[in-house]
Design goal:
- The complex is a heterodimer.
- By secondary structure, chain A is of the alpha/beta class.
- Chain A has one domain: HUPs (Rossmann fold), CATH 3.40.50.
- In chain A, 30% of the residues lie in helices and 30% in strands.
- Chain A contains six helices and 15 strands.
- In chain A, the strands form three sheets. Chain A has a nine-stranded mixed β-sheet with strand order 11-10-9-12-8-1-6-7-13, with helices on both faces. Chain A has a two-stranded antiparallel ribbon with strand order 2-5. In chain A, strands 3-4 form a two-stranded antiparallel sheet.
- In chain A, α2 packs antiparallel against α5 and α3 packs across α4.
- The longest helix of chain A has 17 residues.
- The mean pLDDT of chain A is 92.
- Chain B is an alpha/beta fold.
- Chain B has three domains: 55 residues, 2-Layer Sandwich (Alpha-Beta Plaits), CATH 3.30.70.20; 190 residues, Rossmann fold (3-Layer(aba) Sandwich); 123 residues, Rossmann fold (3-Layer(aba) Sandwich).
- Chain B is 25% helix and 26% strand.
- Chain B contains eleven helices and 22 strands.
- The N and C termini of chain B lie far apart (71 Å).
- The chains are: A alpha/beta, B alpha/beta.
- Chains A and B meet through α3, α4, β9, β10 and β11 of A and α5, α6, β11, β13 and β14 of B.
- β14 of chain A pairs antiparallel with β14 of chain B.
């Protein structure tokens, strides 16, 4: 089994603060982390590799410093890592990102599954996974909370959807996007950390992937961000202070009032 | 960035495309059409192939004329044949957008049997309904649905295509957008037509809801977006509206799929989909343990509501993901939202701020939730909520 896990380095959005005056993100001092959703994809890959044997290759498109999340993945147990990095890749939207990642998967060859997190916590698009599947013309199973079965021929996975879950069977190769319900990611091992320090991570650029300017980065991106704003806040609510008994009564007044209307 | 591709899975090796090519660029190798560098991307082979196996991916430089595209197409979503409310919301929004240039609103419905639904789509704002009916379209499956919608888009050329940002829409639309070489914006909360360019301004929260980004797709068509459910408003259905209903012809190969749905498990009763709830009692970091959610459940039962949670409570493992409200969870719009021990970080706020009335109980008077709730109660929820439960019971006696 040859499994690719596509991971992304993201700013820790829980730490993101806003410059209220300028309405921009304060990026300084915000730690970069491995996208939390991708850790579930990685764990799923490692779990099945441990059971079935094979190789887990982590791949990330990003600036040179994105190598850090690949090393972190290796410390958790990934066998190989590839960084897709090129100045020409900058400014990519999900079309160009998935196109680049899919081309890398083709270059690796004989891949059975591509796993990735449901979405990245910075963009929150959840589009890259299914777009990789489209580029490769592979089937896809998105929003997977549980992989029930994996063999050399097929996968059976549970997709968590509105109002329930769908159990989907797909032939391989396939692209799967993973939810946090799927597993609990393992911690890096000491051995893993040592490997992570030493492992050579090849860097593939536009030319290595035989891609043209027009299909990568900003040039290859059909969409473009034209403006950024901060959500408006409104402060016309009533705030009550007092003894708990008093507050509970006030709250009951309001709640039962709305119930009757 | 135009390119040509032969889909290995779909090509049957019939060879019809070979003489169709004016440049002699196609040959058959091992029963598969292979295209040489002599190809000029003229498209003659694409239209000669009855199996849709040859795909020319058009890009900004291929001369596709943006002005050929007009109108707004809504991809309807159905489960068990019943059209989801989000579709009606999209039709309301589509109508508002189409009014700017007086273009047509269409809806595409893929289902086993349309029944009353095409008429309903018209009542909610569609001028035209394209319907594909087949038992194979009973359950959503990525490949038949994306293939059918792709063909429809190529044929009808809508300027804008909208689908709900549900697990279905977010599975389907990226696949279509990638194959059509056009842009897609995820999970929009606001759409508008740029008065200068006539293009679609697509606004969405990003960075955990900390910012709102406005995105355009200026050089390719259609402009595609998934739209967050429960944000746009559906129109009142109007039984006097007229519209056309057109059948989408399906070929067997359109319906082929490498995935199958083995079973569907509905949520247990009491574990209702929170996006449908009228009252939500929600807990956050201040709840402190999974056992303490029982307190909120008691209140929810009393009010006939459902249980929600913030990411902090989910991450702590106190309650399961289907309950999560916020940027990485669900967006809800109940009549009453009661936030207990939730600080109101922006990641949570974007998922519940359109609730009609927001109540907040928190012992930290400086919690951000007090900046946007309708009624805030500063105090210990473990004191206030039990007293509230008692009070409601007493009054109802």
């Amino acid at each position: 089994m040859r499994i690719v896990v596509a991971v992304k380095q993201v700013p820790d959005t829980a730490e993101v603060r806003i410059d209220e005056e300028r309405g921009t993100l304060i990026r300084e001092g915000i730690p970069s982390i491995l996208n939390p959703f991708d850790t579930y994809a990685l764990e799923e890959a490692l779990k099945w590799r441990d059971e079935l044997g094979g190789t887990v290759i982590v791949v990330s498109m990003g600036p040179p410093q994105a190598e850090a999340v690949l090393r972190e993945s290796v410390s958790m147990g990934a066998d190989e890592a590839v960084l897709l990095s090129d100045r020409a890749f900058a400014g990519a939207d999900t079309w160009a990102t998935s196109h680049t990642l899919a081309t890398a998967v083709e270059k690796m060859g004989n891949i059975d599954i591509v796993l990735t997190g449901k979405q990245a916590i910075d963009g929150d698009t959840a589009q890259t996974g299914p777009s990789i599947a489209a580029s490769l013309d592979w089937p896809q199973i998105t929003f997977v909370g549980n992989v029930r079965e994996l063999t050399g021929k097929h996968i059976i996975a549970e997709r968590y959807v509105e109002g329930g879950s769908e159990v989907i069977k797909s032939s391989l190769p396939v692209v799967v996007t993973v939810l946090k319900d799927a597993n609990t990611p393992r911690l890096p091992s000491l051995k893993g950390k040592m490997r992570a320090r030493k492992i050579e991570i090849p860097v593939w650029g536009k030319d290595d992937l035989e891609l043209s300017e027009g299909e990568v980065g900003l040039d290859g991106s059909p969409t473009r961000v034209v403006s950024i704003a901060t959500p408006e806040t409104f402060t016309d609510g009533q705030i009550h202070h007092g003894e708990p008994e008093e507050l509970a009564k006030l709250m009951a007044d309001s709640l039962l009032g709305t119930e009757d209307s | 960035m135009a390119s040509i591709e032969v889909r290995k899975e779909t090509c049957v090796g019939c060879g019809v495309c070979v003489p169709a090519c004016p440049f002699g660029a196609i040959s058959m190798v091992d029963d598969l059409a292979v295209i040489s560098d002599d190809c000029t991307l003229c498209g003659a082979c694409e239209s000669s192939c009855s199996f849709g196996a040859i795909i020319i991916r058009t890009g900004e430089t291929d001369g596709t004329c943006i002005s050929d595209y007009s109108g707004v197409m809504v991809i309807a979503e159905q489960r068990d044949g019943i059209v989801d409310h989000s579709t009606f919301e999209l039709l309301g929004e589509a109508k508002r957008l189409a009014e700017v240039d007086g273009s047509v609103v269409s809806a595409a419905l893929l289902t086993e049997e349309g029944g009353v639904w095409p008429e309903k789509l018209i009542q909610y704002g569609a001028d035209r309904v394209y319907i594909a009916e087949d038992p194979a379209l009973r359950h959503f499956r990525t490949e038949p649905f994306s293939r059918t919608v792709e063909k429809l888009i190529k044929q009808k050329k809508p300027a804008i295509v909208l689908a709900a940002a549900t697990t279905t829409g977010r599975d389907l639309m990226p696949r279509i957008a990638k194959n059509l070489n056009t842009g897609l914006t995820a999970d929009c909360t606001e759409l508008a037509i740029d008065p200068e360019t006539g293009g679609l301004l697509q606004t969405r929260p990003a960075f955990g809801g900390n910012i709102l980004a406005t995105i355009v797709c200026s050089d390719t068509r259609p402009q595609m977006a998934t739209v967050r459910p429960r944000v746009m408003k559906a129109l009142e259905p109007d039984g006097s509206r007229n519209g056309e209903i057109e059948k989408i012809e399906l070929a067997p190969e359109d319906l082929a799929s490498r995935t199958e749905v083995l079973e569907f498990n509905s949520l247990d009763e009491g574990e209702v989909d929170i996006t449908e709830a009228l009252i939500i009692v929600s807990g956050g970091r201040g709840i402190k343990s999974s056992e303490n959610f029982a307190l909120l459940e008691e209140l929810a039962d009393l009010l006939d509501g459902s249980i929600g949670a913030s990411r902090a409570a989910i991450d702590a493992g106190w309650i399961s993901y289907p309950h999560q409200v916020g940027q990485t969870g669900k967006t809800v719009q109940p009549k009453t939202y009661i936030a207990c021990g939730i600080s109101g970080a922006v990641q949570h706020r974007v998922g519940m701020q359109s609730s009609d009335r927001i109540f907040a109980v928190n012992k930290d008077a400086t919690a951000p939730i007090f900046e946007f709730c309708d009624e805030g109660y500063v105090g210990d929820l473990f004191e206030i909520i039990p007293l509230l439960i008692k009070e409601i019971k007493r009054r109802r006696k």
